[in-house]
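Case study.
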Amino acid sequence: MTIRDILTYPDERLRQVSGPVVQFDAALQANIDDLEETRLAGPAAVGIAAPQIGWFQRVVIVDVSGRKKTRSHGHLVLINPEITEWEGFVLGREGCLSVPDYTGNVVRAERIQLHALDREGKEQSFEMEGFEARAVQHEMDHLDGLLFLDRLVSRRQDLFQRKVYKE
Amino acid sequence: MLNWYMLTLVGKDRPGIVARVTTTLFEAGCNLGETSMIRLGRNFTVMMMVQGRDADRLRGALQPVVDELQLTLHIDAIEPGLHQRLVPDVCIRVHGADRAGIVSQVTSRAEQAGLNILDLESDVGGTEAEPIYILQIEGVAAQGVDAIRAALAPLQSDGVKVYVHAIDTLIG
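After joint prediction, the assembly is written out as follows.
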């Protein structure tokens, strides 16, 4: 296993759309192991996406099980993931291994239904909420060339202010 | 050799101040660091970390704009300090009928419970007859979020709503 270099913004390669995994071979397993090794080497990341190490296939790893009071499905390798349902939205703070020294507020769905393949190519589906759902949405954005910077909402406005209508 | 300065500009608000000021700084060969601009009442306010040769040149470059837009300019030399960001782990929101002393009570109690404020914003909303006060704070809770929640709980009974929640920063 190898710790790979993390691509950092504004590296244009982070902007490309990754392609689906079609072969579940030894090369895939080796890349997944490198991805996990790289995640663990960084500063306490709960997830990582393949494009962050310059591997442009639809693979993400998410693991929020180390956090207190957080609902979790454990350590997840998600291949060709797709969100099939979204519900609610919630504001939360995010940072990224590919965007050092900056965190910002991002709105994400509160609950999601997710389909993906595991590292052997077996179908899996999940209902997720809260921090884990946020992590999955953050990582899946990388597969489409998006960063949390593309979704920032104001640091100052925690409340969504209502427009005042004159009678 | 470029040095860092904190520029403070205050004046009556009108459209175009930021564009004029930053263009002037750019043309004078300065770089911007972190900045914060907000309209308070009818006033334009901005604080900017600016990298430039020396304070006199900065003042000289800005003087025509400052005079024209009737701004008050203040310049302080500061230590270089980009990439020194602290990540907040607690958010405090307070609102209630406006009355004297809310900010003082909230911040004093929170400080005793280990709060270091990174960002504070307060507003007066509602109507002139019945003003409401809204306070939002982000900071680092050196003694934990629960300590701050406990310290602020007694304020609830005075007709003030206080919400304290952890900011869980997701790194992915």
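Observations recorded in class. Chain A touches chain B through 28 residues (CB under 8 Å). The two ends of chain A are 67 Å apart (CA to CA). We will return to this complex in the next lecture.
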